[in-house]
Amino acid sequence: MSTKSSDGPVRWLHPDEERAWRAFLRLVVTVQSGTARDLAAVGLSEPDYEVLSTLSERPGHTSTLRDQAEKMGWSRSRLSRHATRMEARGLLRREPDPTDGRGCFLVLTEQGLTELENAAPAHVESVRRHFIDRLAPEDLAAIEQIARRVDDS
Question: What is the distance between the alpha carbons of residues 91 and 145, in angstroms, rounded to a whole number?
Fold first, then answer.
């Protein structure tokens, strides 16, 4: 494996850049593992919660698989596999998409909405405990600004 990019020599990280990168990775792992553990205690995985919460925001609690995958930043195949597992648990159902013979709609079921409504307070408390309440308002603003800058690239 080459250590050189096609644009020239590798721009290795300086010690302060390396520390910042590793701190960011630790932050993500720490927050995600905490919130995942707390969601598991109420019977949902992080991917379950993400699917349920994003579907709940859609008109009629319905979305095409394609649009839902795009909104979540997932591949269609990943979402399809996960939706199959959620469908087996009664959290959502699929309906044919008459405009796309290969596509389908994902529909949040009453059971899925109830599970989301039951989990949401615990999830919000978890996000607060593991992230929000540990930071000052200016830290949150800085993170939002950084995220926008990184997302624009």
Answer: 35
